[in-house]
Design brief:
Helix content is 87%, strand content 0%. It is built from 5 helices and no strands. The chain starts with a helix and ends with a helix.
């Protein structure tokens, strides 16, 4: 073996393990990057699913409020029982709690709208105690308008989280 071949062999033996170690380090860094991206994707998906679930629950709670108010209005002539009044008030409270949860995930404008909607529902339920059952839809007109806007906002927020 010539001196040149010996030197090339020494260089290869010295630098080849360093090259492999560098490739291993780059692979490790890239793996960490991909793992971090995966965790972000999973967290965003969990957040989006939770938000959509709460949107579904708040829709149900809204229609429960309307149903309970309808029962109050129907029983206004004979006098609504304390149980019916408590169930209607509980439905409004549940809606307000879900609205607060959703609002906490958003900005101050959305918080204000959920507060306004909760107050409109409370007024409608209180008025339903003396209203005829035929006029219940008129009591909920302001709340229906706000609810429609908030429901659209729920859908927009969930779609935005998909991106």
């Amino acid at each position: 073996m010539s001196e040149r071949e010996a030197r090339i062999r020494a260089v290869i033996i010295s630098y080849f393990p360093m090259f492999i170690a560098t490739l291993s380090l780059v692979t490790s860094i890239y793996n960490g990057y991909l793992n971090n991206k995966f965790v972000d994707i999973v967290q965003n998906n969990v957040t989006r699913v939770e938000y959509m679930k709460t949107c579904k629950e708040i829709i149900d709670a809204y229609f429960q409020v309307k149903f309970r108010a309808g029962l109050l209005a129907a029983s206004a002539e004979r006098g609504a029982s304390a149980t019916e009044q408590a169930e209607a008030a509980n439905a409004v409270t549940k809606f307000a709690a879900l609205g607060t949860y959703l609002a906490n995930l958003r900005n101050n404008e959305v918080r204000g709208r959920y507060t306004e909607l909760s107050q409109a529902l409370q007024k409608a339920v209180l008025a339903a105690r003396q209203a005829p059952s035929a006029g219940i839809d008129r009591l909920f007109e302001p709340a229906d308008r706000i609810f429609g806007e908030m429901n659209d906002d729920c859908v927009r927020s969930a779609k935005a989280a998909l991106r």
